[in-house]
Amino acid sequence: MTQLTCEGVVVSAGGRPVLRGADLEVPAGSRTALVGPSGAGKTTLLRAVAGLAPLDAGDILVGSRSLRGVPAHRRRVAVVFQEPRLLPHLSVWENVALPLKTAGIARRERRGRAGELLADVGLTGFAERRVPGLSGGEQQRVALARALCADPDLLLLDEPLAAVDPNRRSGLRRLIVELQRERRVTTLAITHDRTEAAELGERIALMLEGRIVQHARAQELFERPATAAVARFFGMTNLLRGTVRGGYLELAGTQIPVPGPDGPATFAIRPEHVEVAPRAALVATVVEALFAGTHVRLVAMAGEQRIEVHTTVDQLPPVGSTTGIELPIRRLWRVPATSAETARGEPERHADPS
To answer: Which of 21, 31, 273, 300 has the highest CB neighbour number within 10 Å of its CB?
Structure first.
């Protein structure tokens, strides 16, 4: 098992910087899911690790070994792309065993190893089939088996489920997690879906504008974001700004109890933690209610403060009515102040991934 370390990685494309000093550590034998809006630099970082994008500055290390100047085929890095990139003229087992053929391994040994890996990915009996007859999910399983056949130090997954039928994604996610746990291969997986990231990664790294802005366990990013921008990306849409005095934040003329010391502050709370409570002190006007399958997404205005609530149909007040809104103090997260955000007064907005 080997650790992946990216130190101040800078990569440009067409003269424009894409990665602007990206720092990331993926501990040996662990899984990190890399998320971020389109154009943030996720795939560029993966390509840099794989040796497919040259560095302008910084370094990438596997264990203590620098990869600067090491060609892609000598990095012991396997990549599963969004498209499986299988060879249609070869059988399934021949596709899986390609790394062994390149290494000069005898045909009988190659076939035996391919059969073992096909069993691992749930494709026993598929060895002699041809690629064109496989479903998208089956093809991606073959691609995963081929990547593992190389016995890599690092496994890189570039949105491997994006082209898979939605009904089959959950099974493939579980398979990826199970195989990584069994083999303890250090894994970096890219996805644009924050929920998928929570399932795929033991930890999640969020990239914004070519930098990693927070890398932690999923619950920390969803519940305790480092900045307002991180909060918004992970669906923590309720950001309450003001000055705390005597343990209270004034909101629409109402004193809301909040944690932490007095002074300027930003508090975040997830929509599912906000409660519709008719007798609550904070009163808001319902301006929108949208059924979202598992819940109702309700938007209310308390003065100029927009508050989003995820509630149930039986708790839903009608649009245009007023209702009490409860903001449980135990669920309010005081977002750490940053010098950049303090200087601007309003954190920069980033695309919502949902």
So the answer is: 300
